[in-house]
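re: ur question from earlier - yeah i can do the single chain one, its not a big deal. heres the input i used so u can compare w yours
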Amino acid sequence: MINNEMTAKNIRSAFGGESQAYQRYIAWGKIAEKEGFPNVGLLFKAIAYAE
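and the output i got, formated as tokens:
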């Protein structure tokens, strides 16, 4: 349990932002692959995993 409420709030916010970024990059990677850009899709997936 985190005692400092501000720290807990910041951790929750950071986690939410990172998980949303991961999902966006995965989605963009799938779109790129469907549109015929497999290398771009792989780049987006690599960025997602780096998040």
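The mean pLDDT is 88. not sure if urs matches, ping me
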